[in-house]
Amino acid sequence: MEVTFLGTGAGMPSKLRNVSSIALDLRAINRSIWLFDCGEGTQHQILKTTIKPGRIEKIFITHLHGDHIYGLLGLLSSRSFQDGHSPVEIYGPAGLQTFIETSFKISHTHLQYPLDFFTVNDNDVYIFDGLKVRVKKLTHGIDSFGYQVIENDQLGELQVDKLKSRGISPGPMYQTIKSQHVTTLENGETVKREDVIGPDKPGRIVTILGDTKQPTQFVDFVKNSDLLIAEATFASDLPSLAEQFFHSTITETTQLARLANVKQLCLTHISQRYTAKDQLDLEQEAKAQFTNTQIAIDLLTLNVVKP
Amino acid sequence: MEVTFLGTGAGMPSKLRNVSSIALDLRAINRSIWLFDCGEGTQHQILKTTIKPGRIEKIFITHLHGDHIYGLLGLLSSRSFQDGHSPVEIYGPAGLQTFIETSFKISHTHLQYPLDFFTVNDNDVYIFDGLKVRVKKLTHGIDSFGYQVIENDQLGELQVDKLKSRGISPGPMYQTIKSQHVTTLENGETVKREDVIGPDKPGRIVTILGDTKQPTQFVDFVKNSDLLIAEATFASDLPSLAEQFFHSTITETTQLARLANVKQLCLTHISQRYTAKDQLDLEQEAKAQFTNTQIAIDLLTLNVVKP
Ligand SMILES: [Zn+2]
Ligand SMILES: [Zn+2]
Fold first, then answer.
1. 3-class DSSP state for residue B121?
2. Which residues on adjacent β-strands are paired with residue B137?
3. Residue in chain A nearest B63 by alpha carbon
4. What domains can you pick out in chain B, each with its CATH number?
5. SS3 label, residue A154
6. Which PANTHER family match (chains A, B) (predicted)?
7. CA torsion A226→A232→A236→A242, rounded to 10°?
8. DSSP, residue by residue, A15-40
9. What is the CA(A67)–ligand 1 centre distance, in A?
10. Of A201, A212, B57, B171, which is least surrounded by CB within 10 A?
């Protein structure tokens, strides 16, 4: 489970940061890749990664501002030009279907695969292969949503002492016992997995919030995330700009992370007023407020691990 | 009068070539810049040039395929975020207004400047400050157009021998005489410009064709262009692919240039099947058929001069 930031800038692209998109690599869990937001140039950024557009199976859109959706048209078209035949599901606020279908009609674009649209609402929960996704409505002037990806709980560890006390020595048989409910040994005895395995390990939780102001409203939703990705459009000294434009400051988002007992925080959707020279200052400012924090940059990849 | 290729690839972006867009720099003539087509990522390419989006006053769209229009939404939005307050005129096939207005409505985009739409038709002529534009319908399966930019004729050269024979010595007075119809000299005599100036010099002609098959149909339209920019999606060995997909080969387009007495040819809209290693081969192939030819690459700038 890896996150790659395809675009980390707010509003419009700069040489330093493209507009918003995040890839969640689930190839180890269910062979797919999901996107969160898809600003213009997302397909160009993907060319710089190992992601094959044909592997992208779901796209979650946080809100309909142009810097979060204008890349959908080209990405979906190019996916069709290339190897893409499997369906794509698009989740987001109402309006996406009209945007895409109107644009494709006018541009005479005919995809080689089906598109399915899902209009999300506050507190929705979607169950998928190996994961579920929770939806939370944020505060951004227009409908904006956060998505929380929760990996299914994982099997616990084999209790080696119990196995050994039954005379089963370490070896390939351990993997077999772990992989099925009941295993018959060579001597005819049966081993029930539930008797020799520890408690389930909770799955990883990744929360990706769309644009919002006053993020500390969402402590309950974010609680115990292993990775929180959230906007911090402005540095801590510009709370009134953040309030005015329905955005967050570094202070506000690190406070959310602290209150919600987040393990790792990555801030994105950085105002284009900040240049490459400001990156270090922003990161120092954020880390002083919440230690395990990064300011995302384009093409940064984070591996999501349970602490 | 300069042309900058912002994207030179067909269908979808690659690392080598972005999708179609061409900037025509008319700052020396009327302080404006015009775009021809605007594929996704055009605004990103503009970041690598000296072009200010606020200077872009007219956008001509050859046809509505996605790789020629999907960059309009972001470019127009960012122009508004930045300094753009002057109106933008958009010329192209019917459908552009619906595409842009639907997308802007859904994304809650409100420009700070007016957009004016003009639906073009075969043989239209538009008269602008210092230039006119002729329109030609091409053959591409869907409506596709070529645009010919014709600079107004320029004043001829002052006839120095005539001026001298009237006792007027070279100096700043020559510029004054050229700049107005009648000049009164210090001695009270008057000089009519028409008596001391040579014949008008014809303005420059730049023809930009959209996607088309069988380009030699358009010899009359292209005739005597100082610069012809036209597609050659495929090399000369793939005429049946070109025919099938309503595109041109290098052979077909160089033949158009020859028949139309073009001074300079630049081929663009190159299939993404051709890699950086193929660039030299393609250019050699083209030059063997029409000497003054280039295969465009992204960010190539050509200065348009009268031979
Ligand atoms: Zn945004
Ligand atoms: Zn094309």
1. coil
2. B145
3. A107
4. 2-153+207-303 (3.60.15.10), 160-195 (no CATH)
5. strand
6. ZINC PHOSPHODIESTERASE ELAC PROTEIN 1
7. -140
8. SS-PBSEEEEEEHHHHSEEEEE---T
9. 6
10. B171
Shortest distance between the Cα of A77 and any Cα of chain B, in A, equals: 8
Q: Which residues of A are catalytic?
A: 67
Q: pLDDT band at A307, cuts 50/70/90?
A: low
State ipTM: 0.92
Reference B210, options B92, B63, B29; nearest CA is B63
Chain A residue with Cα closest to B62: A107
Q: Which of the residues B99, B106, B140, B211 would you substitute to probe the A interface, choosing the one with the greatest number of A C-beta atoms within 10 Å?
A: B106
Whether chain A has a CB inside 8 Å of the CB on B95: the answer is yes
> Tokens 């199976």 — which residue?
A57
Residue B110 touches chain A, beta carbons under 8 Å = no
Q: Which two tokens stand for residue A99?
A: 């945007």
State which amino acid sits at residue A115: L
Parallel/antiparallel/unpaired status of strands A21-26 and A2-7: antiparallel
Whole-angstrom distance, CA of residue A60 vs CA of residue B106:
16
Residue B128 Cα distances to B113, B166, B229, angstroms: 20, 38, 21
**Catalytic (active site) residue B281:** no
Q: Which two tokens stand for residue B280?
A: 């030299």
pLDDT computed for residue B48 by the predictor: 97
**Shortest-distance ligand to the CA of residue A108:** 2
pLDDT digits (tens, 9 = 90+) for B276-292: 999 999 999 999 999 99
* Among B128, B125, B142, B140, CA closest to B24: B128
Judge whether residue A209 has pLDDT over 70: yes
pLDDT category at A83 given cuts 50, 70, 90 is: confident
Q: Is B140 annotated as a binding residue?
A: yes
Residue-wise pLDDT for B74-128, tens only, equals: 999 999 998 778 999 999 999 999 999 999 999 999 999 999 999 999 999 999 9
Q: What is the pLDDT of residue A59?
A: 98
Q: Distance between the two ends of chain A, CA-based, in angstroms?
A: 14
Distance CA A296, CA A4 (A): 9
Q: Which residues of A touch B15 (CB under 8 A)?
A: 47-48
Shortest CA gap A125–chain B (Å): 25
First-to-last C-alpha distance (Å) of chain B: 14
- Identify which of A26, A83, A10, A82 has the alpha carbon closest to the alpha carbon of residue A58: A26
Q: Are A87 and A115 in contact (CB under 8 A)?
A: yes
Alpha helices in B40-166, H assignment, sequence order: 42-46, 66-69, 72-81, 96-106, 160-165
